[in-house]
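EI: anyone free to look at a 185-residue chain?
SC: sure, send it
EI:
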Amino acid sequence: MASDTKALTGHADLILGHVAAREDTWAERLRAWRTQMGAAPGPMEVWLAHRSLATLDVRLDRQCQTALRVAEYLTGRSDVLAVRYPGLATDPAHEIARQQMRRFGSVVGFTLATRSAVEDFLGACTLVYEATSFGGVHTTAERRARWGGDAIPEGFIRLSVGCEDADDILADLAQALDKSWPNEA
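SC: here you go
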């Protein structure tokens, strides 16, 4: 089961997902369920998804390369308490990710000291949008703890790197971090 709304379609203009099966028995059960429930996308949704497949590899490559640069940059900041990105050799998930993945994804998690630091940071970003939908061509971020239910720090941010120029994203992050903690940058 996958959310095609994210990287697969990648333009933030479609809500779509899919379920795939290797075994014939499960595939037949899925086909029967779809036939009975009518869970099939409309022609416009299919066209949008098909259009997006042409740029999937290029978008993912750009996003993942930039995400690694962002993660490396964030690890060098004294105002960033922690960084999670499986592409970093220091990340606890790096070894297993290296075995399972060709690319390490476009989402970087990092922690600032407080909720207000995150709110200041997000408010100071000019290129990064505050949003909860990830995987699009524009870089987005959210303070995950605002939704509750997860055992994470108030200052934890999930950043989904888009396709903008890497230097532009890094410059925006730097200026926003500098504004959120001006005495520590």
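EI: The helical segments are 24-37, 43-53, 56-75, 94-100, 115-124, 166-180.
SC: 👍
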